[in-house]
């Protein structure tokens, strides 16, 4: 059965810094789809973050490129298997050069935290109690 994929394309100031950041979070770089201007970061079998230098990213749009440290252009939400895994990923992100973004959200059945990568792109990491999802 076909599974649709999501490719999130982000403009980054320093490709090497971004590659190091994401590999320190535990994600792999797919070298087959990476070069001196782009890195393909594999989040899961169906989610890939493509980080591009500004020159490369500009080839895909005629719009002004947002400075994610000043403007929110997208919020990327990632599911997590547990509350502990939420904390683990956000803590890894901070240790790797990211920063905490916003406040911890704890609603009992749902728990989330967010981080900004070194370029200011916001990633929300969320766990939801499977029992709450089912009913």
Describe this protein's structure.
The chain is an alpha+beta fold. 24% of the residues lie in helices and 31% in strands. The protein is built from four helices and nine strands, in the order βαβββαβαββββα. It has helices at 15-24, 54-58, 83-95, 130-134; strands spanning 6-11, 28-29, 38-42, 47-52, 75-79, 99-100, 105-106, 110-116, 122-128. The strands form two sheets. Strands 5, 6, 7, 8 and 9 form a five-stranded mixed sheet that branches. β3 (38-42) and β4 (47-52) form a beta hairpin. The chain starts with 5 loop residues before the first strand and ends with a helix.
How do the helices and strands line up, and which of them pair or pack?
Layout lengths: L5 E6 L3 H10 L3 E2 L8 E5 L4 E6 L1 H5 L16 E5 L3 H13 L3 E2 L4 E2 L3 E7 L5 E7 L1 H5 L1
Parallel strand pairs: 1-4, 5-9
Antiparallel strand pairs: 2-3, 3-4, 6-8, 7-8, 8-9
Keywords:
single chain; 135 residues; alpha+beta; 5-stranded mixed beta sheet; 4-stranded mixed beta sheet; 4 helices; 9 strands; 31% strand; globular
**Mean pLDDT across residues:** 96
What would you call the structural class? alpha+beta
Contiguous low-pLDDT stretches (5 residues minimum) are none
**Total helix count?**
4
Tell me the radius of gyration: 15 Å
What spatial form do the alpha-carbon principal axes imply? globular
Please describe the biggest sheet, giving its number of strands, its sense, and whether it closes into a barrel: 5 strands, mixed
Task: Provide the succession of SSEs.
Answer: EHEEEHEHEEEEH
Terminal Cα separation, in Å?
Answer: 27 Å
- Total number of strands: 9
The percent range for helix content is 10-25%
Q: How much beta, percentage-wise? A: 25-35%
């Amino acid at each position: 059965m076909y599974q649709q994929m999501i490719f999130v394309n982000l403009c980054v100031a320093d490709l090497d810094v971004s590659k190091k950041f994401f590999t320190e979070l535990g994600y792999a770089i797919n070298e087959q789809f990476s070069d001196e201007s782009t890195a393909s970061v594999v989040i899961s079998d169906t989610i890939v973050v493509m980080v591009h230098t500004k020159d490369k990213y500009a080839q895909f749009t005629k719009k002004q490129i947002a400075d994610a440290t000043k403007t929110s252009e997208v919020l990327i939400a990632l599911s997590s298997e547990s509350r502990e895994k939420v904390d683990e990923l956000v803590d890894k992100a901070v240790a790797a050069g990211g920063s905490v973004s916003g406040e911890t959200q704890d609603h009992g059945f749902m728990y989330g935290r967010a981080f900004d990568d070194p370029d200011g792109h916001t990633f929300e990491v969320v766990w939801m109690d499977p029992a709450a999802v089912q009913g």
